[in-house]
Amino acid sequence: MIRQCLAASLLVLSSTSLMAAECSIDIQSTDQMRFSTDNIVVDKSCKQFTVNLQHTGTMPSNVMGHNWVLTTAADMQGAMMEGMSAGVANNYVKVDDARVIAHTKVIGGGEKDSVTFDTSKLKEGESYAFFCSFPGHSALMKGTLAFK
Q1: Which end of the chain has fewer CB atoms < 10 Å from its terminal CB, N or C?
Q2: Which residues contact 60 (CB under 8 A, 6 or more apart)?
Q3: Residue 33: left if φ>0, alpha if ψ -120 to 50, beta else—which one?
Q4: How far apart are CA 137 and CA 141, in angstroms?
Q5: What confidence score (pLDDT) does residue 116 get?
Q6: Is the pLDDT of residue 15 over 80?
């Protein structure tokens, strides 16, 4: 009887950890202007979500810098265009741009950066886009984020 209770307890504990939502993602970016994923799903049970960005290339940030920027799909174009004019000193993100939900800094080859944001900023059913706002990169470096 004790063995059965112990086995049942272990099963419950192991399945609980398996069912826990993953509230972060690791994304690699390359010198070939690519993200390692073009689709992110954030579980609505996550109170915060973290994006860990790594530039796996070798080129410096002023030549082939990458960042990760999150907006609604509808706001992507405007935030991207105004971000380009904000310049590298502002990570190609307009200062205090309300359309930008979260962003990392611009990083070069071998560098990493992370951003953690409050998921209360997301709405289930809304279309979200992420992209690199370094000038010209968003044509290839973009994807979707869903909050479910």
Answers
A1: N
A2: 108, 109
A3: left
A4: 6
A5: 98
A6: no
CB contact at 8 A, 73 and 144: yes
Is the distance from CB of 40 to CB of 25 less than 8 angstroms? yes
Q: How far is CA 118 from CA 4, 7, 46, 48, 88, in A?
A: 41, 37, 9, 5, 25
The Cα–Cα gap between 24 and 124 comes to 18
* Stated pTM of the model: 0.87
Q: Tokens representing 30?
A: 């390359």
Task: Give the pair of three-digit tokens for residue 100.
Answer: 């930008």
- pLDDT band of 11, cuts 50, 70, 90: very low
DSSP 100-126: --EEPPPB-TT-EEEEEEEGGG--TT-
Measured CA distances, 22 to 11, 116, 127, 129 (Å): 20, 13, 20, 19
pLDDT category at 135 given cuts 50, 70, 90 is very high
Alpha-carbon Rg for the chain in angstroms? 18
